[in-house]
Every structure is written in C-alpha cells, then in structure tokens.
Fold these 3 entries.
Entry 1:
Amino acid sequence: MVGRLTNRTYRKRIDSFVQQQIEDMDDHRYTLLPFFTYWITFVHLLITILTVCLYGIAPVGFSQHETVDSVLRNKGVYENVKFVQQENFWVGPNSEALIHLGAKFSPCMRQDQQVHDLIQEKRGRERESACCVRNDRSGCLQTSQEECSSTLAVWVKWPHHPSAPLLEGKVRQHGSVCHQDPRICLEPASVSPHEWPDDITKWPVCTRYNPGNHTNLPHIDCAITGRPCCIGTKGRCEITSREYCDFMKGYFHEDATLCSQVACMDDVCGLLPFLNPEIPDQFYRLWLSLFLHAGILHCLVSVLFQMTILRDLEKLAGWLRISIIYIVSGITGNLASAIFLPYRAEVGPAGSQFGILACLFVELFQSWQILERPWRAFTKLLCVVIFLFSFGMLPWIDNFAHISGFISGLFLSFAFLPYISFGRSDMYRKRVQICVFLLVFLGLFSGLAVLFYIHPVKCEWCEYLTCIPLTDKFCDKYDLNAHLH
C-alpha cells in the first residue's frame, strides 16, 4: 500500500544480484504476519475502552469549561466557587485522569524546581501557622494570623498562648496544630529520645490518641473544619473542607492535620509510589504513555495509521525490527517533549508514528538506485510529512514528540531496516552505516537524558515550534491547576 501511495516502481533493467534480493524480500513480506501491529492495535483499543469506561469523558471542545456552585468552605459558610478545567476535543478523560493513568508529565518523572519551590513556600507559611479556634469552640482551622478573626476566634499560637507545651525544658516556639498535640498522641508517641521536633512541618500523622473526652486544650477540644486537600497537578495543598475538596476534584486526607504530612505529588501522579516522597521518579512514563490515548478520536487515528503504514512496514522488516523502532522512537519523542513542554500531560504514540514515517524515507533512500522515479516518491513523502508537522502547530498537539520521534526513527531505521546491497563494497559501507547511526542515536538519547535530569533547560521561544499564535487566544497557555475565584 505504501508503494502505491508514493508511486514507487522499479526500473525495468535491474542487476540479477539485486533482483534476487528483491524477490527474497517479497517472499519474506508475504509469508510473515504483522503480529506487532495487531498486538499494539489491540492494546490501544482495549486500554482506550477501559479508560473511557472508568474515567468518563471530559467536556468536549477546544477551550476551558467552567463549573460554578455554592460550596461549604472551611469557615462554615457557603461561597460561590468556580472550577475550571480544559476541554478535550479528542473525546476522552480530563488531563488529571490521564496523568493518573501514566501520561508524560515531567513533575511526576523528576524533581521539578517550580513544583518544589511551591511546596517549600507552602511549608514555610505553615510553619508559622496555628490553630484558629472559634470562641464557642464550635470549629477550628489551621490558619495564619491574618486569616483568623480577632473578634470571633482565638489564634492559639505558641509560645504566647498558655497551652504551649515544653520541649527539652523550653517552651515550643511553633504551633499549635488543630487536633494534634505531642502530649495526647499515643502512636507515634512523643517521648525521649524520639520527641517531636519544634518544627510542626516535621510532625508525623498521629494514628492513636489518648481516649480522654476533654483535654482542656482549646486546639484539641474543638470540631475541626478543614484538613489537607491536594488540588491541581502541581502539588498545591489547602486546609479546607471535604465538600470544597470534592468540588475541586482534589484528594482529601481525612487523617492528616497539616499539608506537610501529605505527599500531594503522589496523589497527582498515582501509579507506583515514589521511593522518596520528596523526589518523583516515575521515569517509566516515557514508554507507558505510548499505550494511552487522549480519547476515542485519538485512538482511531492511531489505529488507522497502524493498520496501513505500520502493517506494511512490519511485513517488510519483521516484528522485532519494527517494534524496536516504534517503541524507542516513541520514548525519545516523549523525552524531548518532557524537556520543552514539562507541564503538558501528553499521551499517545505520536513520536512512534513519526519514527515509522522516517522508515519510509530510509527505505526510499536504500532503494534509490533501482526506483524508476525516486524523486517523485520523495516529493510525495515530503509533502505528507510537512503537512503532518504543520498540523502539529495547532494547540494541544505536541510537535516536539513529532520532531524527535522522526529524527530518532531516521537513525534507527538506518541501523535496523533490511537493505539491498549493490555489491561487496556497498555491503561493507552499509554495515559501517549501521554502527555509525547507532552511535549517533545513543548520543542523541544521552544528550536528551542529560537535559532532562541534570541540566534542565527553559526555552520560551520553543513553544512556537508546537503552536503558532494565529489569534490572541489561539495558543493560550493552559494551566492544569484548578482556578479559584
């Protein structure tokens, strides 16, 4: 099918040695079944169906969807709250669900400096917070002094409040914490030499309390109205009510009392927990996202490509060669995308598909001498690829994965695709070519890995490679965090 589309025809007069190689390749093509194509297509369809069934379909469109409702907040009053989420024109789940499933998302794969700074800033404010207790003790909430009403409540701040406990003979300087105190927690108990530190952001979650009904401690004998809630995709944590947390599609922590006691990025990313809660390490998203799709339409595009282009190439090259090119090109494309578009949740085998398109060019170059009109075939292929790259200039389509997948697929195709030799010297030249292009690819991949993990780059103008602002709002940067008004 690929040959018909690009109008490839062999010359009438071909050397018998070359003709024999062509016939052997044709026999090989008709005897092998494209098992990898069938397998990857089945997996894509199955996962897409399960994803849509389990996570549903987000609002369909190209803009942002707003939901406004009156929600009970942590101060015991109802407030109008607006939740904003990006629409999905692929007819599939929202971005948060895709991240939870394994989308390419840099903050889940490495320690992102922006996310790390946001978390540390929150901890710094929390360290100076205290429990704000209403005068009738009907409710209490961990807040800063500015957020605690001086007329309707008491800000129980240590060491100024008489309830302040001692630590090594000195009054504690930080606290109090609503519904948590080292004097009444039994597990883990604050006893020497394992006393809880003065810094409340280093306190553990108390799992068992002293069973007494009243402690005469104002920050304990009150009804707590807010607990930690992880909102958005950048580890933002708020002490708030369960109702508000559910409305904002957050993760509510019933047992914790402070944001420093929860790992919000673990909630955001899902999958396997980080080995170190402070350092995201889900590097396997580079290949896991190749099996996911943003929606039903996205999956259908992949199926169409694989049952036409990929299937024909697998018959030519075999399942092992083509699977290596497909998967490794996709991983390389995702790695480049993670460098230049770190906060975009991307799924799908776009890099893999462009790596397969590169195979068509390499197969053309390898057969150039025996084709009747090679320039015509090259022009047709070039027009197709330019069109697809220009399509990547639209919003929500990742051109970095396309470009990197195509380049890596080009190098890998020279190394792995079967070739026709035109003599002994040409055969030796192509063997050297295999080694050279393998080394070039390894250099490319190593360079991208260094840029991602060791020397992260920030490129403002790079966004023009993936979206051209035809109008003022055509390429609006979308923030996956929920917006509050």
Entry 2:
Amino acid sequence: MFYGRTKEIRKEMKKAFSQDVKCRSSMIMGQLMEKHNKVTADVCKDLPKVLEATLRCYDGDCSMCKQYSVVCTGDDGYNWWTRSKYLGCYNITVLQMDEKDKLLLQEILKMKLSEQALNSMKLYDTTNKNEGVHRALSVNLPKNVIHSRGMQARLASGIHRNNNKPGTSAKMKCEHLGVNLSESSLQFLSKMDIDYTYKQEYEKSQKLT
C-alpha cells in the first residue's frame, strides 16, 4: 500500500495516513453537521455517498468528490492530496491499494462516517472538547488538592470563567460583591479577554484549511 524504501519509512507513512484518515473524517462530519444544523437524520442521508466518495478519492478516483466528498473538490490543482498536511509530509500522492486494502479502509471509515457512528456520538461532543473542559476546571480544582469545603464554589467559579472569559468573569464577580475597580484594573481585565480571544482564534486557525 505504501512505497517507502525502508521499513521505518513505511511505518511513518502508515502513521501519517492514519492521522490523515482521522482528520479527514472529523472534518467531513463537522462540515456535514454545520450544513444540516446538526440534524442527524439529514446527515445520515448524505453519509453513504460521502463514504463512497472518500474511499474512491483515496483510491485515486475523484469523480464523486466535487458533489459528495465535502472536503475534496476533485480538481487537479486543489484537492485533498494537495490540502492534507499529513500526506504532504511524505509526498504521498497515490496509494497502492488492492481489494483487501479497500475493504479494510472502508471499515475504518465506517467508524466515523456511518449512521451507527453518528448515533453513538449523541450530542456530537468530541474528546478534545471534553479534555478542554477538564483542563479548564482543573485550574480551580486541581486533582492533587482536596477542597472539602470550597469545591462547589470553585467549580461554579471555573464554569463562570469559561462562559464569560477570564477578565469579564472577574469584573462581574467584583461588581456583584460591590468592589470598585480602578481604571488600570479594568484595562488589565480587558487585556486578559483580548489575549484569551486571540489565543482561541489562533488555535482554531491551525486547523487544516
């Protein structure tokens, strides 16, 4: 399936390809969810053709890509092979797949691009989102410290911080407690929000486009 000169190179290419399949499947599902406003019934109708187009695309046939692939236009100059950062790392432009490889890849794609997989995701929450929430809450509730009395307050504070940005959250808490903040303090809190927003937008911009 891969044409690397050595066993180690082929191993790295397999790893890159597995990451590419995962990334592509997530992008497809995300765009389908956005297209159909997270109406799973409508998404399920598109999945069979999307799965077939994706499998054909990896096999070098982009005839269905423009209409069904979602992430590949099928054009020679701008297609998934040129977009993918994982395939590009090893200049993978073709896969030498036999029928056994195609069946295996089809089963792998079904893990993300099938009605059964979609139903198993329920609210379409990803592992990254869950880990993000855990990291955010661990700021107020670190695992190595037991807060027997203030746990609920710390949890509520962490949730409020995540929902309203750090600076805004601190300002709202002070206003509720009747604390008057100086102009320099307000500017500092405003700067916290700006930095927080910039970091979020920067991380989003690192996604494959």
Entry 3:
Amino acid sequence: MPSTTSGRGIVLVAGNRDTFDRTLTAIKLLRHMHHCQLSIEVWHLSDEQPSEHMRQELESLGATPRDLSDPQLVRPIIHRRNADKQFQIKAAAVINSAFKEVLYLDSDNVPAHDPTFLFDTAEYKATGALFWPDFWKTHGENKIFDVLDIPCEDEWEQESGQMVIDKEKSWVPLQLAWYMQKHYEIYFQFLNGDKDTFKYAWKALDMPYHMTEAFVGMAGTMVNNRFCGHTMLQYAPGSDQDDDTILFVHANLLKITDRKHFIHGDQPEHPWDLAKRSSMSHANTWIKPEFYVSTQGQACMDFTHRQGEPDAITEDFDSVLPDFQTNYFKYGGIGGETRS
C-alpha cells in the first residue's frame, strides 16, 4: 500500500450526468442532514468528466473529483469495457483512493445516518472489512468454487453498494478483487458483475471479513394491494433483531421505474411509502425474496411468505426515517425515471 495513503474517507464512483447528480444528492445529505465530516472522493473515467458546474458543486461540499486514468495511480484504468456498466472501476477506485480506510458507496446508495461510526465498530476493527448481504445465493454447482478452490456454503451473496475496508489489512484481497474485475471476461461468467468479487477474493485468501447480520430490507409502495419494493435497505452491523437500524437506502430498482407511479394528484413525488423487513432476519438463510412485475408494469421486490414462517414487518417509511424523503428531494434527489 502506498505510504501516502492515510485517514478515513468516502469513495463514490460516477460517470454520466445521472450518476453525478445522484452522487451530488448523497453528498448533500451527508453534509447538510447528517453533518458528516469525512473527506470524500468521486472517481470517474477519463471520458466521463464532470461538468465545470458539477465540479464546482462537488468541491464546495468538500468532495474531490478523481480521474481513474491518471498513470501515477496504483491501478489506473485507461480503457473502458465494451459494455454499458463499468463494473471494473469499483476495486480500482478503492485501491487508488488517498484514504487508508474507505467507505465505498454506489452513486444510487444514500446513507440514512452519518456512517462515520462504522470505522469504530467492533466488527470492523476485528476484521478490517464490513460487507452487506444480497438477495441471492450462488448456486452450488457454480464453477467459481472450483476456480478459487473454496467450499460452497449456504450463505447470501454480497451486495457491494456499500463496503467499509481497511486497505492496510485488506491490501492483498483488494488486489485479487481488482484482478477478477479486470479480467471480467473470465470471472463474470460465474459472477453477477463486481459485487461478489470482493467476498470471494477474501475467501480465496482466507482473509477475515464481517457480513452484517440483518438481511436486506425493502422500501416501496403498495400496488393493487401487494407490496412492491423498489429500494434495498441495509442495516447497521450489530443491530438488535427487534430494532434494526436502517443505514443505507439503495434505490436499485427505483431509478428504472417510471416516476408517474409515485405522483398522485398535485402532491410531490413520494416513492417511499413503506419499509419492509423480515421479523427473523439475523443469521437466517431460508428467507426467500421474490422479484415480480406488477400489474402496472413495475419491477418489484417482496418477501415470499410460506406457511409456518414468521411474518415480515411493514412500517411507514417516513416514520422509520423522519425527514429523509423530504430532504432527499430538497437536495435534488432523483426519484423514478422520467419517461415520455
């Protein structure tokens, strides 16, 4: 690890105008609502420079735009993949960051509270890496287990929209994650993009990490008397099962949903009506999420409830996260997709 690397900070990645706008909103919420003082870097490819206005806004908030093509970087990226999504930049951004300890965030992932405390949690200090679960499990016959010579275990995949990494402790597995992302034509045959390259890199090298106990929650609305989740909710590590604290609001499906579904009459856009989580979400691997298309054509998430299983807990979103939704749009948040 370069000797110039020091301190703690937040790393985000942005590219087109949409992702820069989402990143700007997340940073405004961090600064103005959560009063977070962590330094921030926003990484981009050489052909996706922020506009001068965007650059000035970021810098006014104490966020530094960084170009991944700089040849002085440890892991520069000169050429982009021939694909819409540039999954390979995530590990490179973390590695190249000036920070020794990094909270990485996707551009569509907004903290619900000041996340600074994560660097001082017992789980992070013990391992040097905090990860969060995803809805999926890797199939037992997936060849990734043979390729990396690791056992198949009954566990959730990783959702890498947020990660906390101590680069000094985790420098070697970070390089393996970068290698797997760089050689995506091989590893992405087995993995769904970049997200599990981190967990599997740590596993392949037998390095410790902590997977947050609470299973993924969902935020969304009711559509024809059925819950339609369009946003992933991730929780604070070590939280009590009866009182899980929402820490990240990751609008993974919201951004591809027509915003007309969230506007009623002359009221402002309101995409988050409900928050839903399993009532037995800790250390369980039998929870079954379901993805479906609503009668109105929306992509939705929900929990499949089978006989004998505990009910999910559904709560009013604005009661669980007071002022979050109001401030999100106050600071320029993008809700659903604007379609003609």
